[in-house]
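Lecture notes, unit on protein representations.

Consider one protein chain, 524 amino acids long.
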Amino acid sequence: MSPPDSRTAEVRATEPDEGGRGSRLLDLVERAGNALPHPFWLFWILCGVLALVSWALNASGLHVEDPSSGAVVGVRSALSGDAVRDLITGAQGSFVTFGPLGTVLTVMLGVAVAERSGLFEALARRMLSGLSPRTVVLGVALGGVLGKFLSDSAYVVLIPLGAVAFRAVGRSPMLGMIVAFVSINAAGDANPLIAPGDALYASVATAAAQLVDRGVVVRATDNMYFTTVSAFVLAGTIALVVDKILAKREHHLMPDADLEAAAAQRVVAADVDDATELRALKLTGLAVLGYAALIVLAMLPTSSPLRGKGGSIVESTFMDAIAVFLTVLFLLMGAVYGRVTGQIRGSRAIPEFMAEGVRSIAPLLVLFFAVSQFLALFKWTGIATVVAVEGAHFLKQLGAPTLLLFTLLLVAVALMNLVITSGSALWALVAPALVPMLLLLGTSPATTMALYRIADSCTNSITPMSTSFMLCVGYLQTLRRTAGIGTLVSFTLPVALITLLVWTALFFAWYLLGIPLGPGAPVR
């Protein structure tokens, strides 16, 4: 269903011209980024560069002590016979076990049914009917910030929903994708909900702190107050940046006409009268409530197989397999809505919708093969450990005042994050060095963990090393064939830099005021 003409006209009427130094700089970033080879080939070129760098570092004899194990490690040369043997024999495994691959394929099976039944379009139209094209930005930003609770599934669910939401109010669906992506990435660690990542960060921080103080215990809730406030501050910041900066370049994100038409056609196959649509949405809501109730009942016993060790909910089967539960949820929603509206007329329609969904992400699967091989090579060389340890040692040797040290730590981790994009992997590498170091200087592990969250989140949205970044590029290319790395970077760079500054300022104010970061977790 096409968006209202009046709203489309409103957006186009308010399009600013392309003037302005900042806009021209972002145009340059976009052109430079898109001048790079197709991302598929770019990652193979990066494999060659990485091989040469690893060979040079190996030849130099550079070694560091891995703080997590105490072992002395160096960089392994990717030009060795062992590297060629291991990487060739492991190529298939690297692709099949590539994290986002399984998540994308699994969740897409359910999302495709919900999307092609017309459910998403109907929800977006009903929920956004009273919103202006500008107000919708805040809604998508809040959804992205809070959606990180879904782990990697958030990207598969929310990026397409961002497109639907923006299309519904006459704005570029590609910008909707970018807003959803950057909100999940740049502000994802500001989630007010306790997610599995919080438990992981806390356990790593505890182990690191106990290297110097056996009595220190870091809990998953130790940053709760700070992240809850941060979530809403950052969502507002993202909405403001989009409105004041990105909206001026929205006309750069016009989809290819044939791809946009195809996207619109596969959302709704036929018109549905208002009464039928309302009845379908109500029954779909009841189905969701019933599904949620079943999960809650199944998890009530502490011995439930959906729980983890000791009856844990945060570290549990349910959280580890959240993608599976989401797939069933979207499949159920799409099936109920589609049956009531007549979009699903027989049992064959559901697997056909699933197949269409998988076909629609075929370009992502091709890209994932190249990305998975590069990341396997990067991991094999051991360069990540050397980068993290050397960066931590540099901060330690400075002996700077506390706030300056915090600033340097933020910059160092943010730069490391451009290369080591897994938040848990980078935290596991730097925490054994940073947490004890700052603890000895009087900084609590909860404070160090909060600083890490800031630095780790913001730069994820501007690095092609991030699998979620390349996932978003793939989604953009489903609407415009020429979209590339430069397209995404030119729109995420202002958000990443400004959210980093705002979040850092919020933390410094929090620290100076002495507000606890969480229950029983003083900031200093």
